[in-house]
Design goal:
Elements: E1 3-7, E2 13-15, E3 21-23, H1 28-40, E4 44-49, H2 64-67, H3 71-85, E5 89-90, E6 101-104, H4 118-130, E7 133-137, E8 160-161, H5 166-172, H6 182-189, E9 192-193, E10 203-206, E11 209-212, H7 218-228
Helix pairs in contact: 1-3, 1-7
Family: Belongs to the peptidase C56 family. HSP31-like subfamily.
Pfam families: DJ-1_PfpI
Keywords: Glutamine amidotransferase, Lyase, Stress response
Length: 229
């Protein structure tokens, strides 16, 4: 059976520059929408994280005033998918040959751990070399920063990509006190960052790399990957 891997953060806290702890977790729509797209198309979907730790739900993604009127459906779908899968795979044990695509959802967790996870970095470098589809949405593109090759270069430098913008971070209220801002960091590392209107669906494809700007981009991004597969 064809398989897709969703790689989640293991972080439940984002430490701010003033030392305060900001609770975080996975963003329901960013897990649920891609899972629904691939499962409906007949793909088996696996979940992995650093150490196989299951990250909690970001409660903001269950608030209809923040995440929209469909958020309860996304919360239920993501929870069911994770419950049915069972214990997450430890990233260190993932075998790339098993997968047609790797999906990196957000929540703020990826800026805490995935951006520097060496196991994920090796997996992404190998996946990109093999032409495996790599998809990242919202804060998920922070995970791409882990992909440093043997020469110390960033694998995704000069690639076109979308990600949660600095403007969206400010509008969400989490820019002040953030150790670093994702879109700015991606540009600093050499990415060609592209963006659309705040909180509106916007996706970018660059070869086998598929990225989405925000939670609303999760479904459209997954549909693009599916069409390519």
């Amino acid at each position: 059976m064809r398989k897709v891997l969703i790689v989640m953060s293991a972080a439940d806290t984002w430490v701010r520059t003033d030392g305060s702890a900001y609770p975080t977790g996975y963003w329901a729509e960013e897990v649920a929408a891609p899972h629904a797209v691939f499962a409906a198309a007949g793909f088996a979907v696996d979940f992995a994280s650093p150490g196989g730790v299951r990250q909690p739900l970001d409660r903001h993604s269950a608030d209809p005033e923040i995440a929209g009127p469909d958020c309860a459906r996304h919360v239920a779908h993501a929870a069911t998918a994770l419950d049915e899968f069972g214990p997450l795979l430890p990233l260190a044990e993932v075998v790339l040959d098993d997968y047609a695509a790797i999906v990196l959802p957000g929540g703020h967790g990826p800026v805490v751990d995935l951006h520097e996870d060496p196991d994920l970095g090796r997996l992404l470098v190998a996946a990109d070399r093999a032409g495996v589809a790599i998809a990242a949405v919202c804060h998920g593109p922070a995970a791409l920063l882990s992909a440093v090759d043997e020469a110390g270069g960033w694998r995704f430098a000069r690639r076109r990509m979308a990600a949660f913008t600095d403007e969206e971070e400010r509008l969400f209220g989490t820019a002040d006190g953030a150790p670093w801002l994702l879109a700015s960091r991606l540009r600093e590392r050499g990415a060609v960052h592209e963006s659309g209107p705040a909180y509106q669906p916007f996706t970018v494809r660059d070869g086998n790399l598929f990225t989405g700007q925000n939670p609303a981009s999760s479904g459209p991004m997954a549909e693009q990957v599916l069409a390519a597969l």
